[in-house]
């Protein structure tokens, strides 16, 4: 942050250099938004950047009147603000809604004194004419998203603030206010504010869509992407007559059409004969081409929220009339979500959410931030499905056509993380590939990079990762030439990062850079849909085979604390479906880790922390074979012993039992057993050796 003298010098110099005609303070030729605003402040409003400044505020009674006058806008904005605040507040940000006059009419604030700015409370006046260059006021003048970083504010009093605002437009494309995300943190990085600006723009887009869909709730709506977080919306009646266009759609079509003289959708797009029956195609994705050899747009068609409006409802409108202004209406329920879908490579976000309210909230929030390049941090215990959630995020994001690259920060030795993650040039070190290696960051360019177990990354590598995330450039070891990359970062950890920061094991600035959107995935024992999840996992493992879980087995599964979470559940059920008789999984087929033996278990098994089902169901399994699991330890994937009672011991035991049972069913035929277990023969042979299974 600059001192007062440097701050004033920068503003005066930049404003004076801006090529504007005298008195032309809104010239579209002004390429530098900040400099244009500074010039308006000096020449238009006669402000002095060195002057002491006190923000204006209305009385409580006047604020109440302001809120009543903007009640509809507040009602539409509040659900989106509340959903967004749950994540950004963790990093110290606050969210406010500004009226067309620049007054903050409602806010969700982080009242931590380290981040909260009293000057941004509800009722304060942020019109540029009142407070100089600031995100809300300048955004309202420019009518576009604006980020104002520390000393970009005209008055030095606000230099500790960083703000990002995006304009809000009514369904008939009139400017009605601005949404703002801000923080008081002089140490904030400019690159972080750019990310927040994308988040703010997406928030404004969703609020605008809420208003538009409610205003045209009796019409079919075509939605198409204009930018990463901007969407055009067109409302039509059953006769394909244009009823309304939002601000983004009008901006896109302004140079192509005279909207005031257009009524038919087919004056905008080339006629598509598939759109004969709008009701049948509701919810479908279509590709439409703009008239006169224009671009192709991917369009989603949605049905009316209420009974559709027909052409007769608009019979009084002339053929040359512009799209009608929407009626004033109270907010309605949100548009129903699309049905769950499986992605090409795994679970969808809806599958991850299941019927658990906390996970449903997580998914709704993630969908709001997709496309804005906001880093996502997944928190949760081992085995809760952070990797599946990360892949589902990628598959539902605009980057799904790009690569999904996963990198486990805990599984790679410290000495190799540099070369594996950042890459290296030819001959960078002894043993390096002759052609070099691009590294995971470059491999993920244009797609998603999943940094699993980020909390275990060595502190020495965290500095370099932070530089890459801030600059968007990576320099492979021994290359000497930086490469620009564009990646969506999703990080995950089961560590308490705040504790590791306090211990000096994790950089605080890296945490803030990764924690753009924080998703806390609940453990299996806390999920409200535990029963449904157990049944869904079993169904997926059964691959079409009809299996049921007996009440006694379900009772055991529901009572278990699941220290290994979904990963442990998958192994327990996989073992059960291989050894169960018929199509019913009973309690005799379930082996669970507990603090003691289950009723009916026998001490001769020698593993109290992992209590199997009664001995009768173990006939023909690995229990009679001896080996490492019967001594209270298991052999992990690395060949090292795993302590009895741990989640890894439970998983290894379940895997060993499943392999043994499958071999028995296949008469000792390794090839058949490998096919049944969906393993390669080489992998199965390694596991047979690891678990010392005789076959």
TrEMBL record:
The UniProt entry, under SUPFAM superfamilies, shows: Homeodomain-like (SSF46689), P-loop containing nucleoside triphosphate hydrolases (SSF52540)
Q: Where is the composition biased (Low complexity)?
A: 309-323
**Has UniProt tagged this entry with the keyword Phosphoprotein?**
no
Q: Where is the composition biased (Pro residues)?
A: 324-339
Q: What SMART domains does this protein map onto?
A: AAA
**Family matches, as CDD domains:** AAA
Where in the numbering of this chain does the Sigma-54 factor interaction domain appear?
Answer: 352-578
* Protein origin, superkingdom: Bacteria
Segments carrying the region annotation (Disordered) are 308-349
Per UniProt, which keywords does this protein have? Activator, ATP-binding, DNA-binding, Nucleotide-binding, Transcription, Transcription regulation, Two-component regulatory system
Any Pfam family hit = Sigma54_activat
For this protein, the record's InterPro entries field holds: AAA+_ATPase (IPR003593), AAA_lid_NorR (IPR058031), GAF-like_dom_sf (IPR029016), Homeodomain-like_sf (IPR009057), HTH_Fis (IPR002197), P-loop_NTPase (IPR027417), Sigma_54_int (IPR002078), Sigma_54_int_dom_ATP-bd_1 (IPR025662)
What protein name is recorded for this chain? Sigma-54-dependent Fis family transcriptional regulator
């Amino acid at each position: 942050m600059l001192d007062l003298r440097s701050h004033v010098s920068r503003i005066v110099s930049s404003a004076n250099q801006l090529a504007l005609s005298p008195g032309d303070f809104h010239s579209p030729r002004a390429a530098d938004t900040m400099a244009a605003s500074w010039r308006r402040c000096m020449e238009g409003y006669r402000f002095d950047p060195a002057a002491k400044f006190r923000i204006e505020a209305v009385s409580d009674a006047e604020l109440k009147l302001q809120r009543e006058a903007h009640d509809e806008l507040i009602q539409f904005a509040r659900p989106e603000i509340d959903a967004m605040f749950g994540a950004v507040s963790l990093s110290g940000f606050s969210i406010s809604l500004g009226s067309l006059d620049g007054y903050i009419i409602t806010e969700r604030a982080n009242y931590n004194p380290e981040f909260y700015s009293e000057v941004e409370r509800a009722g304060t006046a942020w019109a540029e004419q009142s407070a100089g260059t600031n995100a809300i006021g300048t955004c309202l003048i420019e009518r576009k998203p604006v980020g104002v970083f520390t000393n970009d504010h005209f008055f030095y009093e606000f230099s500790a603030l960083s703000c990002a605002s995006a304009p809000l437009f009514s369904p008939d494309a009139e400017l009605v206010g601005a949404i703002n995300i801000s923080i008081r943190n002089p140490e904030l990085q400019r690159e972080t504010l750019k990310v927040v600006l994308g988040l703010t723009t997406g928030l404004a887009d969703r609020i605008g869509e809420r208003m538009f869909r409610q205003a045209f709730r009796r019409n079919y709506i075509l939605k198409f992407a204009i930018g990463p977080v901007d969407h055009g919306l067109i409302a039509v009646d059953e006769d394909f007559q244009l009823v309304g266009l939002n601000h983004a759609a009008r901006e896109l079509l302004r140079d192509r059409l005279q909207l005031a003289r257009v009524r038919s959708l087919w004056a905008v797009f080339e006629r598509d004969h598939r759109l004969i029956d709008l009701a049948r195609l509701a919810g479908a994705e279509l590709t439409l081409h703009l008239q006169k050899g224009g671009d192709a747009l991917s369009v989603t068609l949605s049905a009316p929220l209420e009974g559709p409006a027909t052409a007769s409802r608009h019979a009084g409108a002339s053929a040359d009339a512009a799209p009608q202004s929407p009626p004033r209406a109270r907010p309605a329920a949100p548009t129903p979500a699309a049905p769950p879908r499986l992605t090409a490579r795994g679970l969808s976000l809806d599958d991850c959410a299941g019927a658990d309210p906390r996970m449903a909230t997580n998914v709704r929030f993630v969908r709001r931030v997709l496309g804005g390049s906001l880093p996502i941090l997944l928190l949760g215990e081992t085995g809760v499905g952070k990797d599946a959630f990360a892949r589902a995020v990628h598959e539902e994001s605009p980057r799904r056509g790009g690569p999904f690259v996963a990198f486990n920060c805990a599984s790679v030795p410290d000495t190799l993380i540099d070369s594996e993650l950042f890459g290296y040039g030819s001959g960078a070190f002894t043993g390096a590939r002759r052609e070099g290696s691009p590294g995971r960051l470059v491999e993920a360019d244009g797609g998603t990079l999943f940094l699993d177990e980020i909390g275990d990354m060595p502190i020495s590598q965290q500095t370099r990762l932070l530089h890459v995330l801030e600059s968007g450039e990576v320099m492979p070891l021994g290359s000497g030439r930086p490469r620009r990359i564009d990646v969506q970062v999703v990080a995950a950890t089961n560590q308490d990062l705040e504790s590791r920061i306090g211990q000096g094991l994790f950089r605080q600035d890296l945490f803030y850079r990764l924690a753009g959107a924080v998703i806390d995935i609940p453990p299996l024992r806390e999920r409200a849909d535990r029963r449904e999840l157990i049944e869904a996992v079993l169904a997926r493992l059964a691959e079409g085979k009809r299996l049921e879980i007996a009440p006694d087995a379900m009772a055991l599964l529901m009572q278990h604390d699941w220290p290994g979470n979904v990963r442990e559940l998958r192994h327990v059920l996989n073992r059960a479906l291989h050894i169960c008789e018929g199509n019913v999984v009973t309690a005799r087929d379930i082996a669970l880790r507990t603090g003691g033996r289950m009723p009916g278990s026998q001490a001769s098994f020698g593993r109290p922390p992992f209590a199997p089902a009664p001995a009768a169901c173990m006939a023909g399994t690995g229990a009679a074979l001896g080996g490492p699991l019967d001594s209270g330890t298991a052999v992990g994937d690395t060949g090292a012993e795993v302590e009895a009672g741990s989640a890894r011991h439970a998983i290894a035991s379940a895997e060993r039992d499943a392999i043994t049972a499958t071999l028995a069913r296949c008469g000792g035929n390794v090839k058949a057993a490998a096919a049944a277990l969906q393993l390669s023969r080489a992998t199965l042979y390694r596991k047979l050796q690891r678990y010392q299974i005789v076959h």
